[in-house]
Write a structure and sequence with these properties.
single chain, mainly alpha, 48% helix
């Protein structure tokens, strides 16, 4: 027999499970996001000073 997909309890019937809905197109680690933000801030400071 095939395994059945686990169902959410009825108490959470109004909640949506987005991770089952659609896969992410771009996967970034939190460290990468912080690095990008810091790089943008540094770039803005350099542009402002010159």
């Amino acid at each position: 027999m095939a395994k059945e997909k686990q169902q959410m309890p009825m108490s959470t019937a109004g909640l949506t499970r987005y991770f089952d809905e659609s896969p992410e197109a771009i996967k970034l680690k939190p460290e990468h996001v912080v690095g990008i933000i810091v790089a943008v801030i540094v770039l803005e400071v350099v542009v402002y000073l010159f």
